[in-house]
């Protein structure tokens, strides 16, 4: 790296970073100049050993280099350019693969453990910034959609101690990451169905509870509120919330957006009907296929009473039929699909399912992966920021705050 060596020599020959009269320390005291010290940094041009002015504070007994802060190298051995590469690569692949990508594409060697450490630090910083710095947004579209869902994340055993789950012994090996997605869909396809507007999707997610804390909103409810404010969902003329039918989603919606239109994702509803058909007739035969098709056609036409009538013929001998009856009765006003379509609404949560898969599934649920809650939440925050096109603005804010 000839260019890197030239820059290194030029930097180390420049002693102008010495401040006459000392330098303010973070504790507020004046730190005195204490000579020059060397440190190796990993940059996009390769490793560099830089010699910087060093200051020592008698008040807190701490030492620091002002030049590190100016160059964005404070408390780290990675240059901002390499750190950005680490964040983007670690959001897309495992830490080991990320290390390999950085070496292959950038010619820079960063060990997988360092990729992990720095990526998680970036994710934690993004998560903290998301909590503290909420910028109010406006929804330009007439209708704004919010989808809410959850998906399991494989965890280390200490994170699931005492938690019930779906294992044979009643234990759990995972924790649920809850996802909130906001988007608009003003355009229509050739058949008049709403099409998601490019660049309108915003993701936010974490492993959090929906239980209230000391009478206050739950952690995930506060996340949903922040995302509503940031995206402008709360100011939209028509607010539509979509979910899979889980009670916790509708309870949250009633608490935060009592005037919103609630819609059960139509494909989840059809999936319930298919599960009943398989229970009644077995999978993969003509009777199963015919029964499921008839019920799904009735669902599309809004003929819920016909579906209930067909289900009641089997409710005494089949638990899935009984559960499906309760599912429909509990969500009747959320399953009026002919009316929702007439009003031009989305009736499916494909964008939410895609978010669960791309943000959580493809990154955190790969073979052999087991997470801690803080580690998983850090990578989820990092991936969500990148997919929501918030990473660049956060990065600029981070650089300004550090300078």
SSE layout and pairing:
Elements: H1 2-12, E1 23-24, E2 30-43, E3 46-57, E4 62-64, H2 66-70, H3 80-92, H4 95-106, H5 112-132, E5 143-154, E6 174-183, E7 187-188, E8 194-195, E9 202-206, H6 219-231, E10 238-243, H7 247-256, E11 261-264, H8 266-281, H9 286-301, H10 304-312, H11 319-330, H12 337-342, H13 350-364, H14 373-387, H15 391-402
Parallel strand pairs: 5-10, 10-11
Antiparallel strand pairs: 1-2, 2-3, 3-4, 5-6, 6-9, 7-8
Helix pairs in contact: 3-4, 3-5, 3-14, 4-5, 5-14, 8-9, 8-11, 9-10, 10-11
> How helix-rich are the residues, as a percent range?
40-55%
Task: Tell me the series of helices and strands, N- to C-terminal.
Answer: HEEEEHHHHEEEEEHEHEHHHHHHHH
> Number of helix segments?
15
Q: Give the radius of gyration.
A: 27 Å
Unreliable stretches: none
Span of the ends, CA to CA = 28 Å
**Residue fraction in strands:** 15-25%
Report the mean per-residue pLDDT as an integer: 91
Q: Within the largest sheet, what's the order of strands?
A: 9-6-5-10-11
- Overall 3D form: elongated
* Biggest sheet features: 5 strands, mixed
Strands, total number:
11
Structural class by helix and strand composition: alpha+beta
Describe this protein's structure.
The chain is an alpha+beta fold. Helices cover 46% and strands 18% of the residues. The chain has helices at 2-12, 66-70, 80-92, 95-106, 112-132, 219-231, 247-256, 266-281, 286-301, 304-312, 319-330, 337-342, 350-364, 373-387, 391-402, and strands spanning 23-24, 30-43, 46-57, 62-64, 143-154, 174-183, 187-188, 194-195, 202-206, 238-243, 261-264. It has a five-stranded mixed β-sheet with strand order 9-6-5-10-11. It has a four-stranded antiparallel β-sheet with strand order 1-2-3-4. Helix 7 links the parallel strand 10 and strand 11. The longest helix has 21 residues, at 112-132. The radius of gyration is 27 Å and the shape is elongated. The two termini are 28 Å apart.
């Amino acid at each position: 790296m000839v260019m890197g060596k030239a820059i290194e020599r030029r930097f180390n020959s420049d002693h102008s970073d010495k401040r006459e009269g000392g330098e303010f320390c973070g504790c507020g005291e004046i730190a005195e100049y204490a000579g020059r010290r060397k440190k190796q940094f990993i940059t996009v041009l390769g490793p560099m050993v830089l010699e910087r002015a060093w200051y020592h504070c008698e008040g807190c007994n701490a030492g620091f280099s002002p030049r590190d802060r100016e160059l964005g190298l404070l408390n780290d051995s990675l240059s901002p350019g390499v750190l950005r590469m680490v964040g983007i690569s670690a959001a897309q692949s495992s830490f080991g693969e990320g290390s390999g990508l950085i070496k292959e594409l950038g010619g820079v060697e960063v060990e997988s453990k360092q990729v992990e450490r720095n990526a998680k630090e970036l994710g934690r910083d993004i998560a903290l910034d998301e909590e503290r710095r909420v910028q109010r947004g406006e929804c330009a579209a007439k209708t704004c959609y919010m989808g809410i869902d959850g998906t399991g994340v494989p965890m280390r055993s200490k994170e699931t101690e005492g938690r019930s789950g779906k294992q044979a012994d009643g234990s759990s090996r995972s924790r649920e990451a809850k996802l909130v997605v906001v988007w608009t869909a003003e355009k229509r396809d050739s058949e008049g169905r709403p099409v998601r507007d490019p660049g309108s999707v915003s993701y936010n997610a974490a492993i959090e509870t929906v239980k209230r804390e000391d009478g206050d909103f739950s952690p995930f409810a506060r996340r949903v509120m922040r995302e509503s404010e940031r995206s402008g969902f709360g100011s939209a003329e028509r607010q539509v919330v979509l979910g899979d039918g889980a009670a916790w989603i509708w309870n949250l919606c009633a608490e935060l957006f009592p005037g919103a239109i609630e819609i059960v994702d139509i494909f989840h509803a059809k999936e319930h009907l298919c599960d009943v058909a398989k229970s009644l007739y077995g999978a993969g035969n003509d009777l199963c296929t015919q029964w499921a098709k008839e019920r799904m056609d009735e669902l599309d036409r809004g003929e819920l009473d016909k579906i209930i009538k067909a289900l009641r013929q089997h409710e005494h001998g089949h638990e899935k039929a009984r559960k499906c009856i309760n599912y429909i009765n509990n969500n009747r006003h959320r399953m009026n699909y002919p009316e929702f379509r007439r009003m031009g609404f989305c009736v499916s949560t494909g964008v939410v399912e895609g978010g669960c898969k791309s943000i959580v599934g493809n990154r955190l649920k790969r073979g052999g992966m087991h997470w801690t809650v803080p580690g998983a939440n850090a990578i989820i925050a990092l991936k969500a920021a990148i997919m929501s096109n918030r990473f660049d603005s956060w990065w600029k804010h981070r650089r300004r705050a550090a300078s």
